[in-house]
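Check out a protein:
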Amino acid sequence: MIRKKIAKSIYGNIRVGVVLKRRQPRDDNDDENKDIGWISTDRLVAIKLSSWAKMSQYCGRHLEDPIREISAMQLIGNYHPNLIGPIEVLQDDDYLYTVMPYCAGGDLFGRVMNDDNYVTNEGRTRIWFRQLLSGLSHLQKKGVCHRDISLENIMVDGNGNLVIIDLGMCLRVPYTDPSNMGCVTDVSEGSERRLMVVQGEGGNLLYMAPEVVEADEAFDGFAIDLWAAGVVLFILLTGMEPFRWAHDSDENFSRIAMKGELKEVLKGQQNNNNLSTEAINLLQNMLWRDPRKRLTLADIMQHPWLLGKKFATCASPKNTSPRSISKTAIFLNMIDERMRKTHKKSQNQLLE
């Protein structure tokens, strides 16, 4: 049973639904309720209504695609606690209906940016960030780049746990085809991950990685999701945005991502929260302009802050990552110019 509207979407809206169940008659003489075939339950779901007319209107003109989102949700499954999955997909002549679990806690944007009483807390943020990374880890295992990680696209369920939503802009990450080095395949082959051709700007500019903003070179799909996760972590820990956008014209971006002055930027902010040395170090090493200097997911999972540990010494250098040149750098260096050119010619958006 579809009820009130809770949000708008590009192709329609999202509504709350009540799950019905078929009524079982108590006996053959139950004349009073014999015409009642269904009764409501206490279970709520979120139903995304996407108009076929709008999908036809925006086809090829908008990066977000409901069909691609459903394909991605079916690929990742509905069993991971930190990723939204489909319960059911239905359609009629007017709409495509995607039935999903209902997250009663709202989104993180409302929790942080719209709450005047929001208080930063490293312990709570650590728990949330671990859940965010767990969701991203599942996406990586499935070979999917979300491409639109933001506070608005992270929900809180009824138990206070984070759930990543909105896969409408996601892409399937290309891998080298072991049987033909000039072609690409997906993660199922277990081969070498490849860079992705420029796909155009999309999503929230605040969370967009610099290589996507500049749009002048191929990018690592996993690295841009982790950049966005770094911006999310900064906001959760400080209650403020690190910069307006990842461009040289933004002074804070230049100081943090190019000069490594995140600690100094935090000192100059009005609401300085006295973050721990470990938190500052993690943020700095997730927000370098050069993707080869950023921590990979494996690096982040082993970082002292995420493990709730302290550095051995009080002072820490600007870059104390497990490897100053991470796995991402090794991956990038393994892709020669010939493969890049071949990939640019052959690779388009891979998740259709």
User: Anything to note?
Assistant: Residues 313-318, 320-352 have pLDDT under 50 and may be disordered. The first strand starts at residue 2 and ends at 9. The radius of gyration is 23 Å.
